[in-house]
Amino acid sequence: MNRLQHPTRLAILSCMASFVLLSVVGLSGCAVDTTIVLDGAGKGRIYDGIGAVSAGASSRLLYDYKEPYRSQILDYLFKPGYGAALQHLKVEIGADVNSTDGAEPSSMRSRDDHDYTRGYEWWLMEEARKRNPQIILDTLPWGAPGWVGNGQLYSQDMANYVADFLLGAKKYHHLAIGYTGVWNEKQFDSTYVKELYRTLTEQHIPAQIVCCDEYPGEGLGQWSVVDMMLKDAELNTAVDAVGVHYPLVDGKYTTPANARTIGKPLWSSEDQPNTGGGPIVSREWQIGGRILARLYNRNYLEGGFSKTEIWSPITSYYDILAAPNSGLMYANTPWSGYYNVQGAIWATAHTTQFAQPGWQYLDAASGLLPEQGSYVGLKSPNGKDWSVVVETIDAKQPQKITLGVKGALSLATIHVWETNSQRTFEHVVDVSPVQGKVSYTLDPDSLYTFTTTTGQGRGTVKPPANIPFPLPYADNFEDTEVGRAPRFLSDQDGAFEAHPCLHRKGRCLEQVITVKPIPWGPLPDPFTLAGDVTWSDYRIAVDILLNGDGPVTLMGRIDSADVFKDGKAPWPSGYVLTMEPSGRWTLSTSAYKTTTRKLASGSVPMSAGKWHHAELVFKANQVSASLDGKTLTNTTDSSHPRGMFAIGAGWNRAQFDNLSITPR
Q1: What percent of the chain has pLDDT over 90?
Q2: Which domains does the chain have, with CATH numbers?
Q3: Is the pLDDT of residue 536 over 90?
Q4: Is 391 part of the annotated catalytic residue set?
Q5: What's the 3-state SS for 199-220?
Q6: 315 three-class SS
Q7: Could you tell me the CA-to-CA distances from 457 to 38, 82, 425, 427 in Å, in that order?
Q8: 460-466, Cβ contacts within 8 angstroms, sequence gap of 24 or more
Q9: Three-state SS sequence of 528-550
Q10: Average pLDDT over residues 13-37
Q11: Coil, strand or helix: which one is 415?
């Protein structure tokens, strides 16, 4: 029997078979029929969309993918009727400061600096809008350049900085950004929120303010802005949407009653498919997709949220950095072209491909299923089309639902889409209502969409095979555009860019940030990272130029670069060779949550403004370092048997050239 021809009959037979099996263990095989009535005159909040947050350098390696793979990835994220079809994209306003998995470049490194081409967020917004001209764009700072407010982010300088970013996006990239925020996961300052509002108004910038993107337990509490808005009319006018991060705490939503009645949209403005202990997005449906299937429905049903934004759209950062696997997709090997379309993409598609921002939730057609699961009903602005998203993730047995339609809503053919461990966003059947109703039996641990709309689809293009980071690896930076970062190197603080070499011809890599930015979180010294965590025996060789203002570092066998493991650590977990302009050098082993341990040190002749050649070599338990062909040390240590490499500096304009990594 073909399910596409007789879905209801087959589902009932399946239910009967389940009853026989489940009765043996004392469970009911078929649940009571749940009737869901969609009324065209029904009430509910306006659906504002599902989106993602490109921030914390989470999209860094995506830009390094070559075509056609880069465009394929972007299609899965943003193209309507193809993949996740994201409806909202929030990006970081960069500040050359670590914001989770690296540093994103600033567009204003001084009051007089204006460069709206640095980094990749401009490009990502453009690519998203090419695919979906209706996508809603948003911005949020994680830190700020050091010149802002004499070190105080909440200042007129910062309001001007945000305004300048929005104006630059419009003038140079033709991007109208609809929203902007205050400061990621920091206690808000109501005076600054009003100052930002006045600045945007005076400069005729239409972006609306989302406030205040706070984490549970942060400051006065992530919902404290609502209490203040109710007492301060000016603040209430300034804030257009209330956004909070990770509002599901210990299985319960934190939304207070006054937030539900304040008359502002409520957004889960950063969320993840996790269980409260950090990101655990799986590349399969079984974890990431299943969690999101619950989250999207319940964020509205129990939290009152009309928008959910996931950090991040894509895992395009190295696995040894903080919060690995946060993205809806996985793509962090640009040298291979490989990517993975995870179950989270299709869980998202079950809403985004069937409802658009501006649709309305139907509260009377939204609720919980009696045998575990949930459903939300939505109708289009034209009052005809409708969709119902149903998840049965925690259900243990089949459940029957009956959909009924009232008012002017369409009684046309209903298209049914399903995802579970056997099906991936599959159009399983079309059914026609009888006397305005249709019944359907739901499988457990599944996600469905019932809809009168058409135009949905599932991308099927496949990536090439994954391969390790290339070894040997070399870069003389001659092919890197001036003012841009080289391929594969991921800045963790500061900014490493190609610039004309000092005292030699050609281009070199230069760390250009000399004033510490205003941080969001931990502030390691500037370094840029690449390689493979499985590397063991290899040589790092590079030409270095110190300018007299600070050190240069070579790092190897880096096994963790998670800045949150120890916010006081200046370097990642691995071996670190530090060379000062004075000629003083130190070889250390650095490990988070432990004291950095010195392995060797000494002093050699060294001249600031003169090029030197440094090497750091690993062979089994032997770690050796040399400068200008002379051995500095050859020591034995087993703290870090394998890991990636990095080069770094202080907050000084050191230069690097002829970088190479070769096996030993």
Answers
A1: 86
A2: 7-40+360-451 (2.60.40.1180), 49-352 (3.20.20.80), 473-663 (2.60.120.560)
A3: yes
A4: no
A5: HHHHCCCCCEEEEEEECCCCCC
A6: strand
A7: 25, 5, 8, 9
A8: 461/72, 461/75, 463/69, 463/72, 463/337, 463/338, 463/339, 463/340, 464/69, 464/336, 464/337, 464/338, 465/336, 465/338, 466/333, 466/336, 466/338
A9: EEECCCCCCCEEEEEEEECCCCC
A10: 48
A11: strand
Nearest one of 324, 327, 384, 388 to 355, comparing CA atoms: 388
Q: What b/e string do you get for 152-181 counting C-beta neighbours within 10 Å, with b at 16 or more?
A: ebbbebbbbbbbbbbbbbbeebebebbbbb
Exposure b/e, 78-103, CB count within 10 A at least 16 = b: bbbebbbbbbbbbbbbbbbbbbbbbb
Q: Which of 520, 548, 587 is nearest to 182 (CA)?
A: 520
Non-local (6+) Cβ contacts of 410 within 8 A are 384, 385, 386, 452
The yes-or-no answer on residue 185 being catalytic is yes
Residue 290 zone, left/alpha/beta (φ > 0; ψ -120 to 50; rest)? alpha
The phi and psi torsions of 390 (rounded to 5 degrees) equal -125, 130
- C-alpha–C-alpha distance, residues 387 and 38, integer Å: 9
Report which secondary-structure segment, H or E, holds 180.
strand 179-180
The overall pTM is greater than 0.85: yes
DSSP assignment of 565-621, as one string? S-TT-SS-EEEEEEE-TTSEEEEEEE-TTS--EEEEEEE----TTSEEEEEEEEETT
- Catalytic member of 270, 309, 371, 418: 270
Q: What is the DSSP string of 281-310?
A: --SSIIIIIHHHHHHHHHHHHTT--SEEEE
Average model confidence (pLDDT) for the chain? Answer: 92
Per-residue model confidence as pLDDT tens digits over 34-87 = 999 999 999 999 999 999 999 999 999 999 999 999 999 999 999 999 999 999
* Among candidate residues 69, 161, 56, the one with its CA nearest the CA of residue 103: 56
Instruction: Catalytic residue, from 92, 104, 121, 185: name it.
Output: 185
Of residues 409, 466, 403, 399, the one with CA closest to residue 437: 403
pLDDT in tens, 268-325: 999 987 644 444 444 455 668 999 999 999 999 999 999 999 999 999 999 999 999 8
Name the residue among 403, 391, 431 with its Cα closest to residue 415: 431
The per-residue pLDDT for 27 is 32
Which helix (H) or strand (E) covers residue 77, if one does? helix 69-78
Mean local confidence (pLDDT), 103-125: 97
**Pairing mode, strands 179-180 and 208-214:** parallel
Give the residue among 344, 360, 243 at the shortest CA–CA distance from 295. Answer: 344
Output the CA–CA distances (angstroms, integers) from residue 117 to 114, 209, 397, 529, in the order listed: 9, 24, 54, 22
